[in-house]
């Protein structure tokens, strides 16, 4: 089953050294999952300050800078994995360094019809 792991956290909770170590550890986990055929994709995201939000209301586009919600935790990256079950997705999520300072949300991916 395919799952998306959404990485949330406060952008200011990491020192530069911690961020670098987090990236190194996360890349090692990604390589391990890839070697097992369980990783589809993963990537960190640029700061929320670089975001653009689009809404369409009454057939009009509303474009704003930044995220659509005011929160302390922002979406900072993602993994798309293909594993046997939710328990395995939880085990992988718990290993990810951002889980120690933020949240890893696990969402099943709907399969699209051919």
From TrEMBL:
- List residues of the YCII-related domain: 1-112
> What's the superkingdom here?
Bacteria
InterPro entries recorded: Dimeric_a/b-barrel, YCII
Enumerate the Pfam families for this protein: YCII (PF03795)
* PANTHER family listed in its UniProt record: BLL7171 PROTEIN, BLL7171 PROTEIN-RELATED
The family annotation for this protein states:
Belongs to the YciI family.
What name is this protein filed under? YCII-related domain protein
């Amino acid at each position: 089953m395919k799952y998306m792991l959404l990485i949330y956290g406060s952008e200011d909770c990491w020192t530069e050294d911690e961020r670098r170590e987090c990236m190194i550890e996360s890349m090692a986990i990604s390589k391990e999952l890839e070697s097992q055929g369980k990783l589809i994709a993963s990537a960190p995201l640029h700061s929320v300050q670089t975001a653009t939000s689009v809404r369409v209301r009454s057939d009009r586009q509303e474009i704003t800078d930044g995220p659509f919600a005011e929160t302390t935790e922002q979406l900072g990256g993602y993994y798309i994995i293909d594993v046997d079950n939710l328990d395995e997705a939880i085990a992988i999520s718990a290993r990810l360094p951002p889980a120690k300072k933020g949240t890893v949300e696990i969402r099943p991916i709907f399969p699209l019809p051919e």
